[in-house]
Design goal:
Layout: H1 4-21, H2 27-43, H3 55-70, H4 77-80, H5 85-110, H6 114-120, H7 126-136, H8 140-166, H9 185-204, H10 210-224, H11 234-250, H12 257-285, H13 293-300, H14 305-314, H15 319-339, H16 341-346
Helix pairs in contact: 1-2, 1-11, 2-11, 3-9, 3-10, 3-11, 3-14, 5-6, 5-12, 5-15, 6-7, 6-8, 7-8, 8-12, 9-10, 12-13, 13-15, 14-15
Length: 347
């Protein structure tokens, strides 16, 4: 085993520990990300390159997060979800405006070609967007970097915005947690069995965003029927945050500084646009659905489904409502990315 993996995870642990000590929002997610990414960027200054962390590290711990989210389900939610049909429909104009605006920005200020800008601007999932970009001949390097930076910036910005605006700490330091002090080894074993079963079952049936949704849905079914009742230790929630954050930060490995700076510039501009759009839609929709501005804002902030669900939990928002909106956004974005590309190729 390459000893340099140890450097990556130690850096993430130092970052997470420091963030937790100062009461930062989502300390082990954001701190782990910062610790790992700083190591990568400094270590690779002299053409050295750290080893890539297997995607399975992130998938396994996102599956655990899916199980944690599912454990928050209550039967009352079944009567609540149908009341969000207006916000679900609003996702289509949100995606079209976000995609069109980001596309124009990347064409004018980023200098990307049409296909690359089209897929780099798509407010969908990282893997799905890259697959579509590769299929249609876009620059996969730029699409990958642009989506990764967009997701990371929004994941960082949203909890910090709530922290700065409300003055309240977000995450475990705020006392808003999924965890319980009354647990035993059977609870931990159940979480692992459910999450890993869901992960592999979801991939087998090719469910979209299967690494999060399949464990989540499996946990919903088991808890709703009374088959299981989970008591989750606090350290497991911290561990899942730490592993996901560190794995995200390590993804900067191998990206050239020039490309990174260019994508960072576009990421900041487009990320700001997406957050402003999310705020605008949330401000309107809060009057038509049984949810406040904060829930709708997190539901429309176009980052990763797993990360935004984790943020929702830390803010004490209903993570199922947030996860549902992000699942629909990702699904609609894939359809748009496949349908409208024919017009981009003709121009």
């Amino acid at each position: 085993m390459d000893y340099r993996y140890l450097f990556i995870f130690l850096s993430g642990l130092v970052g997470g520990g420091a963030a937790y000590a100062i009461g930062a929002p989502l300390p082990f997610l954001l701190g782990g990300f910062f610790g790992a990414s700083v190591l990568v960027l400094f270590y690779e200054r002299d053409a050295r390159q750290l080893p890539k962390i297997s995607k399975w590290v992130r998938l396994i711990f996102i599956a655990i997060i899916g199980t944690l989210i599912g454990s928050r389900f209550t039967p009352e939610l079944l009567t609540l979800l149908p009341q969000f049909w207006i916000s679900a429909l609003a996702l289509l104009p949100f995606i079209l405006i976000a995609h069109g605006g980001s596309y124009a920005i990347m064409r004018k200020w980023g200098g990307y070609d049409r296909l690359t800008a089209y897929y780099a601007a798509l407010p969908g999932g990282l893997v799905d967007s890259i697959s579509l970009a590769e299929e249609h001949g876009a620059d996969v390097r730029i699409v990958t970097a642009q989506h990764f930076i967009r997701i990371v910036l929004i994941v960082i910005a949203v909890p910090l915005l709530f922290w700065f605006i409300s003055g309240n700490t977000v995450g475990s330091a705020a006392g808003k947690t999924l965890t319980s002090t009354h647990y035993n080894w059977q609870d931990i074993a159940l979480v692992l069995v459910i999450s890993w079963t869901g992960l592999f079952l979801g991939r087998f049936i090719r469910m979209p965003v299967s690494h999060l949704l399949a464990p989540l849905i499996l946990t919903l079914a088991l808890t709703l029927t009374g088959v299981v009742s989970l008591n989750i230790p606090e350290w497991l929630q911290h561990l899942a945050q730490y592993m996901v954050g560190t794995a995200l930060g390590a993804q900067f490995s191998g990206i050239s500084r020039q490309l990174l700076l260019r994508c960072l510039k576009m990421g900041v501009i487009c990320g700001t646009l997406l957050l402003l759009l999310a705020a605008a839609f949330a401000g309107v929709l809060m009057h038509f659905v049984p949810a406040g501005f904060g829930v709708m804002f997190v539901s429309f902030a176009a980052a990763g489904l797993a990360e935004m669900s984790l943020i929702a939990m830390s803010l004490n928002f209903n993570p199922i409502v947030v996860a549902l909106h992000h699942f629909l956004r990702l699904s609609i974005s894939v359809w748009i990315g496949s349908f409208f590309v024919r017009y981009v190729k003709r121009t």
